[in-house]
C-alpha cells in the first residue's frame, strides 16, 4: 500500500525539483543518475594518481578524511572528484574506516532499578565518556535482572541477551535477544534448546556457547549448546560431565572456562570445567585456577585477570605455567566501586561498573621482563574513575558488554534515537531550520530515511484517519 | 586512537623513560643535534629525539653520529613537533589522561591552518604516531561543517569538476551549502 502512495507522488515531488530524493534508493529517478553517482571502474582508475590532499601521502590524507563526521560529507564531497569517490558512498566510507581500524568502544551496561527491578540498558561512550540510552528490550515477561547472561561480538557491534528467569517465579527462560548497534534495534532470535538461568556463556570465533545453569527442576543442568548468530540456530554440544550453575566464565585461548565459584560453607574448592570447541570435549579445570577464581574475569593480553569480589583486593592474573595467581602491581580497585560490579575489557583497558553505575577504567601495562632468562611479563594497573550522573543513583549493574562501532562517533545510536523522537514530535510544525537538520540526519543515519518517515506518516494517518491532510503535510515537507 | 599510548612497545618505552626526571639533575642528559632542510640546528635531549621513530632507527643503525640531517623537514614545523614531544614525555613520566587531552587540544587549536597542515608530513616522516593522530583529528575537525571553497583553499585542492557537474552537485545538495560555519 505504501508503495502505491509513493509512486503516485513521484511525479509531483520531481516537479518540485527536490533532488534530495536521490539519497534514498526508493526514490531514485533515472534522470538524476550521473557518472559521479555511479563511478565506473575506468573513472576510478583515472583518478588513482590524483592526491587526496596535495602534499600528503594518501594514507595520511585518508586518515584525516575518514575522521570527518558524516554530517559534513555532503559538502566535502563537492570539493573534488576523488573526495566525491571516497565520501559519496557511505558503505565505501565505513569499509575504509574499518580497514584503518577506526573503532570507538562503547560500554553497554545491563542495569536494574534497585527498588522496582526495572531493567534498563545504559551505554557509555568510552571516547567522550557520555551516557546514552537504547530502546528497551522486547520481552513480554517481566524478566528478573539476575540469572540473565549477556555476551557480545565486539567487532560486529552485536550483543546477545540469553535466558534468565521470570520475576518472582523460579522458572528459567529460553529467550534470546540480539541487539545490533548499527541498526540500534533489538531482534528476537531462536530460542535456546534448554531454558536456563545462571549459566556460563562465551563467544568463540563468533559462535555463542552456553553451558549448565539452573533448570526448571531442582537440579542444575549438565547440557550445553551453541548458537551460530549468522544461521540463527542452536545446536547441542557435549555435556559438561557435571551438573553445575556458573558463577563466572571466560574465553581463553579459544576455550570456554566455566567455574561455579566458591559456595557456602566453603568446604570444597569450586568445580570448574573447560570446553574445547575443536574437539567438542570438556575437561576438568586445574586446581589452582578454580581455587583462585574469586571474582569477575576479563582476558587482556591473552591472560586471565580477575577483579576480586572481596572488597579492596588487588587485581590478579592467572599464571598457567605454575597454576597460580599473581597480584598485579598498582593500587586496589578504587573505593567508588561497590558490589555488585560488572567487568569488561577492550585492548589493554578494563572497565569495572559498580553500584550506581560508577565506572572505573584500569589501564593495564605490560612491563618487559628484566633479565633475559626471566621470560615472564609482569603487569601493572592504573585506575581512573568516571563519575556517573546523579540520576543513576538507584541503578545496579548486572552485566557490562563492550561493543565497537566503526561508524561515525558523532552520531551515536542514542543521540540519533533522541533526534528521531524529537523529529517525530516536531514533524507537523517543522520549520525550515528543523528541516535542514532532518536532512543532515537523514544523510548521516541510514535508518533515519524516508522509509521511516513514511512509517511515521502512516502511523499518524491511521490515527488521524485523514490521509489527505497527511499527504499535504508530506508534500510541504519535501 | 587513544589506545596507541598503551601498546606494548610504547609501554616498554615508558619504563625506560620513567627514571629520566630523577637522573636529570644528577648528570647532564645526552643531547642530539637535528638539522632541518633549511640548515637550522636543533639541539634536543636524547629522550625527545627517541620519540621520533625515524631518528631512533637512524641511531640504532649508526650510533656514533651526533648530528641527524632531516632533509624533508623545515625548521618551523620541526620546532613545533619538538615542543609537542617534550610535553608528551612529561605525560609519560607522570600519566594524567585529562591533562594530556587538554594539552593536545590546546596544542592544535592555537596553530594556524597552515602550521597544522605543514606539521602532518613532518609527523609522518618522523613517525610520531600520537602526534599524527592528534593532527589528523584536528584537520577533520577544522573542515567539519565548512563551505566547499573553504575546504579547497585549506588544502590547496583544485576543483576538477566540470561546470555542469558542479552545478548538478550544487543542485543535489543545495542544503549542504547553507548553514555552514563562517570560514
Molecular structure report:
- Chain A folds into two domains: 34-102, no CATH class; 104-405, Kelch-type beta propeller (Neuraminidase), CATH 2.120.10.80.
- Chain A is 23% helix and 29% strand.
- Chain A is built from eleven helices and 26 strands.
- The longest helix of chain A is centred in the C-terminal third of the chain and has 15 residues, at 450-464.
- Chain B has helices at 8-17, 20-26, 46-49, 53-61, 75-93, 97-109, 113-125, 129-143, 148-155, 163-172; strands at 31-35, 41-45, 67-69.
- Chain B folds into two domains: 2-144, 2-Layer Sandwich (Potassium Channel Kv1.1, Chain A), CATH 3.30.710.10; 148-183, no CATH class.
- Chain B has 183 residues and is mainly α.
- The chains are: A alpha+beta (478), B mainly alpha (183).
- At the A-B interface, helix 3, helix 4, helix 5, strand 24 and helix 9 of A face helix 1, helix 7, helix 8, helix 9 and helix 10 of B.
Question: Most extensive interface, residues per chain?
Answer: A-B, 51 and 52 residues
CATH architecture of the largest domain in chain B: 2-Layer Sandwich
State the distance separating the first and last CA atoms of chain A: 20 Å
CATH topology of the largest domain in chain B: Potassium Channel Kv1.1, Chain A
CATH topology annotation of the largest domain in chain A: Neuraminidase
Euclidean distance between termini CA atoms of chain B: 28 Å
State the assembly state of the protein chains: heterodimer
Number of domains of chain B: 2
Domain F-box (chain A): 56-96
Pfam family, one (chain A): Kelch_1
Protein name (chain A): F-box domain-containing protein
Organism (chain A): Salix suchowensis
